[in-house]
């Protein structure tokens, strides 16, 4: 975990560790909007594969408020992203990038921003809020 | 241009063809089922970080993806260690896709190739009861 935390610290973002051992980073964009991005490290699912590293950001807290067609379009939207995909966790919609192994700090910074922008743009476009 | 993916495929002993989509491999599983899996020849990049896509089609739908299946797939994405279900609206195809930084070791590449093909084949079997893709 030391390498994990050092890597996040090297990104020059302020971060907070939560009770689950995840790290939260609050991005502030040029237009003043903010977006929480979370980083999580997990064990490797199989031999010869490095540990997993997930970067995710919540776009919607309760999808019950969204049209089903919009959720359907999330699957299509995932195919247009260079990396990452939409996923549902209960009623919550997240944009998530899943990597094998730890990225370089410079790459991680770009990926954190990519994930945060994807989730924030969804929230702005479809919910008109800035609560995430 | 020489591509390390082609070397990996040769080293792993997979037969492949090269088409417009990239490398096309047909894996055969122990139960006799087969599954096409593709590896992009070129890389997408975000701010000069190159990413490689490995994907496998699970089914081509007769019509538009219905909301019930879409929700199941979106929920299932949460449980995938790596990769995700995506939908190509132009071809009405559900695919399992894994986009990863483009510096895969032989072991990582093989693990992803098998995982992507297996997941797509399982969904094909579940949704269509066939073994076409």
Q: Mind explaining what this structure looks like?
A:
The complex is a heterodimer of chains A (132) and B (133). Chain A has 132 residues and is of the alpha+beta class. Chain A contains three helices and six strands, in the order αββββαββα. Chain A has helices at residues 2-9, 68-78, 105-127; strands at 15-17, 23-28, 34-42, 52-60, 85-89, 92-100. Chain A has a six-stranded antiparallel β-sheet. In chain A, a hairpin with a 2-residue loop joins strand 5 and strand 6. Chain A is globular, with a radius of gyration of 15 Å. Chain A starts with a helix and ends in a 5-residue tail after the last helix. The mean pLDDT of chain B is 91. In chain B, a hairpin with a 2-residue loop joins strand 1 (16-19) and strand 2 (22-28). The two termini of chain B are 29 Å apart. Helix content of chain B is 32%, strand content 35%. In chain B, strands 1, 2, 3, 4, 5, 6 and 7 form a seven-stranded antiparallel β-sheet that branches. With 133 residues, chain B is α+β, with helices and mostly antiparallel strands. Chain B has helices at 4-12, 67-77, 106-128, and strands at 16-19, 22-28, 34-39, 44-46, 49-60, 84-88, 93-101. The chains are: A alpha+beta (132), B alpha+beta (133). The A-B interface holds A 42, 45-46, 48-50, 52, 68-69, 71-72, 74-76, 78-79, 81-89, 93-94, 96, 98-100, 103, 107, 110-111, 114 and B 44-47, 49, 51, 65-67, 70-71, 73-75, 77-78, 80-89, 94-95, 97, 99-101, 105, 107-108, 111-112.
Give the C-alpha Rg of chain A: 15 Å
Largest sheet: spatial strand order of chain A: 1-2-3-4-6-5
Q: Order of helices and strands of chain B, N to C?
A: HEEEEEHEEH
What structural class results from the helix and strand content of chain B? Answer: alpha+beta
Give the percentage of residues in beta strands of chain A: 25-35%
User: Which stretches of chain A are poorly predicted, pLDDT < 50 over at least 5 residues?
Assistant: none
Mean pLDDT of chain A: 89
Largest interface: chains, residues each: A-B, 36 and 37 residues
Shape of chain A: globular
Radius of gyration of chain B: 15 Å
List the total number of helices of chain B: 3
């Amino acid at each position: 975990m030391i390498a994990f935390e050092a890597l996040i610290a090297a990104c020059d973002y302020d971060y907070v560790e939560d009770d689950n051992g995840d790290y939260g980073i609050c991005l502030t964009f040029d237009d003043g909007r903010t977006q929480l991005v979370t980083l999580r490290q997990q064990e490797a699912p199989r031999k010869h594969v490095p540990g997993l590293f997930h970067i995710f950001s919540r776009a919607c807290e309760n999808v019950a408020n969204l049209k089903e067609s919009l959720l359907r379009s999330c699957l299509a939207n995932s195919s247009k992203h260079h990396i990452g995909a939409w996923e549902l966790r209960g009623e919550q919609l997240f944009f998530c990038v899943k990597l094998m192994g730890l990225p370089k700090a410079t790459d991680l910074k770009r990926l954190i921003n990519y994930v945060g922008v994807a989730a924030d743009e969804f929230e702005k476009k479809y919910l008109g809020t800035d609560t995430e | 241009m020489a591509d390390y993916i082609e070397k990996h495929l040769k080293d792993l002993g997979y037969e492949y063809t090269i088409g417009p989509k990239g490398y096309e491999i047909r894996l055969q599983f122990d139960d006799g089922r087969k599954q096409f899996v593709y590896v992009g020849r070129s890389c997408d990049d975000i701010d000069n970080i190159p990413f490689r896509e490995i994907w496998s089609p699970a089914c081509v739908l007769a019509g538009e993806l219905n909301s019930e299946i879409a929700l199941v797939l979106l929920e299932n994405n949460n449980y995938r260690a790596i990769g995700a279900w995506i939908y190509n609206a132009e071809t009405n195809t559900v695919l399992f896709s894994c986009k990863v930084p483009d510096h895969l070791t032989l072991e990582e590449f093989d693990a992803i190739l098998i995982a992507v093909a297996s997941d797509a084949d399982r969904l094909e079997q579940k949704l269509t009861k066939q073994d076409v893709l």
